[in-house]
């Protein structure tokens, strides 16, 4: 598990293996839109403010992956114990 902080509200949620970051964020009140929920459409794109995302989408180019400043929370997870998202 890892933690995700929703920067706009200051809420922190724990993301267990059974939950997507998107689902965990929604349970904490985030209203992020989504469509495919498979990391292919880009609808759920979210800005990463801190932490290192574990990208599992098929959208980002290598340099975008390395930059780590945005992620697709329907599929992507975290390499760090904590992610801070602009949600
Ligand atoms: Fe399609 Fe996340 S909902 S990439």
Walkthrough of the structure:
It is a single chain. The protein is an alpha+beta fold and 87 residues long. It has helices spanning 21-27, 62-67, and strands at residues 2-6, 11-15, 46-50, 53-54, 70-71, 77-78, 82-85. It has a five-stranded mixed β-sheet. Strands 4-6 form a two-stranded antiparallel sheet. β1 (2-6) and β2 form a beta hairpin. It binds FE2/S2 (inorganic) cluster (FES).
Q: What would the keywords be for this entry?
A:
87 residues; alpha+beta; 5-stranded mixed β-sheet; globular; binds FE2/S2 (inorganic) cluster
Offer a quick outline of the entry.
By secondary structure, this protein is an alpha+beta fold. 15% of the residues lie in helices and 29% in strands.
Rg over C-alpha atoms, rounded to the nearest angstrom: 11 Å
CA-CA gap between termini: 19 Å
Give the biggest beta sheet: 5 strands, mixed
Q: H/E series, N to C?
A: EEHEEHEEE
Helical content, roughly?
Answer: 10-25%
Class based on secondary structure composition and strand pairing:
alpha+beta
Strand order of the largest sheet: 2-1-7-3-5
- DSSP strand (E) fraction? 25-35%
Identify the overall geometry: globular
The hetero compounds bound to this protein are: FE2/S2 (inorganic) cluster
Total number of helical segments?
2
Please tally the β strands and state the result: 7
Chain-averaged pLDDT: 97
Low-confidence stretches: none
Break the fold down into its secondary structure elements and pairings.
Layout: E1 2-6, E2 11-15, H1 21-27, E3 46-50, E4 53-54, H2 62-67, E5 70-71, E6 77-78, E7 82-85
Parallel strand pairs: 1-7
Antiparallel strand pairs: 1-2, 3-5, 3-7, 4-6
The site of FE2/S2 (inorganic) cluster has 13 residues, from loops.
